[in-house]
Amino acid sequence: MNKRQALIAAALVTVCAAGAGSAAAADDKEKCYGIAKAGQNDCAAANGAHSCSGQAKTDNGAAEWKYVAKGTCEKAGGKTAPPAK
Question: Would you indicate the residue range of the signal peptide (predicted)?
Answer without folding.
Answer: 1-25
